[in-house]
Here is the input.
Amino acid sequence: GLDQTRFKLIPSLKHLKVKSAYHSVIGGGWGPQFSAGLGGERLYKRDFDNIRVADVSLDCNWSGMKKELGPIIKKASGIDLLVKQALVERVKVNNFGAVGGRPSWREVFPIRVISGMGDGAVLPGYRKSIIEIRHCIVEGSVLGSDIGTEWPYCTGIMVSHNEADPENFIVRALVHHNEILNVVNGIAFGGAFLKTAEFYSNKVTNCGIGFNFDTGSNRGVVIRDNNFLECIGGGSVNNGKHFKIRNNNFLLRAPDDSRFSYWHNGLRIWDHTRGFVVKDNRFEFNGKTKKLSRGIILHGLNVGFRMFQNDSSKWQVQIDPHRFINNHYVGLLPNAAGPQEASHNMYLGIGNRSVNLTGVDGVGDGIQFYWNDD
Here is the structure.
């Protein structure tokens, strides 16, 4: 059980020989599954499938690994699986870290379970994907260098199923009843290339930001009934469509360091997003400092509509607005929406009102739109 069975990542001569930059306490499924070329043959006769990790505490031992391995190691995490089907439950992860610097060395994933990832590698990309992560705990700051602007950070629980086929196979990602604690320089949850996923009944306390989705065109993601308590920010999404964000509680606090100020809003929705429903959430800032954050910020390029080419190769626009319904805002600056540049359109709905921002004063609803209630 938790805190009864413990695994600790320790450096060895094998690590020095392999010279891998990324180490995890429990990992598997990574590596080529097919030979090179379009007609490549399968290298292994079985899938990495039906994996269960449960009732253990994982110590990533970043400080010990870094001390012994020096510049070889860049990141240390708890669970890192590329698998067709997996259940991770009642697992605790701490002492994870990253060296920072280059983008690929900055972000570490204490718990990462994916069935395919669009990173250019020759990986399986399973058509069927069933991932469930429940009753887990990720705790503590991301360890590593705290100097400069390229500081390390994490996504506490990360899921992805790139290349999964929900029309012909079971595709499911469930992340629920987990607890993320005191990850002050990191993100609690995230996903990449998701086609359907649900994050619900999780508790996030004293973290940098509750969730972030910025890799791949995530869609069909439901984020509901979560508590984000004493976090600098609530969530951020770009390049996503048809999210449902509802019945969450976002209690924000002021950032301790200016480098975290970007996170300091309830919900930031930006470039290449459409069709979100944000409903019945509570956004609150009860700090004693000057109010600097908003409940909702909507900005960027291609927000609230779809552009596509018809059979005649002519570009068409299909309006698919974000909708904000019955959310509650306490102690925050007015919500704000605005396109990236003049002549860029943005479509949204505030309660029963439709808003079309054009980036041009006097045309449509103008350049920016502010609201206090929906």
Summary: Residues 60 and 95 are 5 Å apart (CA to CA). The two ends are 45 Å apart (CA to CA). The first helix runs from residue 13 to 18.
